[in-house]
């Protein structure tokens, strides 16, 4: 994720410059989503983009139900890089590795991050 100080520097660069803003918790092997940042776009929005190849992102409410587009919800990440659990901490593992039958193969990581999905399929931090 690009820190706000970096975003401020970007505004002083050539308008043709591009950067990648990547998001991903350690529990998902670092990069789960990516977004190409263009100097000309609104840099006050914290776009984390779309899922990286072979990853899936889901927005669920507290009952693990999908939310409507543009609603704020917790981000869940699924994919081959999702970890198998915390070492000697089964209690924590059970809190964050969630099985969502019929939605994704395997477990999803409950990130604790609140995001919104826009009409173009891009995720934004709230």
UniProtKB/TrEMBL annotation:
Stored InterPro entries: AMP-dep_synth/lig_dom, ANL_N_sf
Please give the Gene3D superfamilies that the UniProt record associates with this protein.
N-terminal domain of ligase-like
Q: Which domain of life is it from?
A: Eukaryota
Q: Which GO terms describe its cellular component?
A: cytoplasm
Domain named AMP-dependent synthetase/ligase is located at 12-87
One GO term of the biological process aspect: amino acid activation for nonribosomal peptide biosynthetic process
Quote one Gene Ontology molecular function term: phosphopantetheine binding
Q: What is this protein called?
A: AMP-dependent synthetase/ligase domain-containing protein
Instruction: List the source organism.
Output: Didymodactylos carnosus
């Amino acid at each position: 994720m690009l820190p706000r100080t970096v975003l401020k520097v970007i505004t002083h660069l050539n308008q043709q410059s591009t950067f990648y803003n990547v998001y991903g918790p350690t529990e998902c092997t670092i990069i789960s989503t990516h977004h190409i940042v263009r100097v000309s776009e609104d840099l006050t929005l914290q776009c984390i983009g779309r899922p990286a190849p072979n990853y899936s992102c889901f927005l669920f409410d507290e009952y693990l139900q999908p939310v409507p587009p543009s609603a704020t919800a917790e981000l869940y990440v699924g994919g081959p890089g999702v970890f198998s659990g915390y070492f000697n901490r089964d209690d924590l593992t059970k809190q964050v590795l969630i099985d969502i039958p019929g939605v994704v193969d395997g477990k999803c990581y409950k990130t604790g991050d609140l995001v919104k999905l826009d009409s173009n399929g891009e995720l934004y931090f709230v």
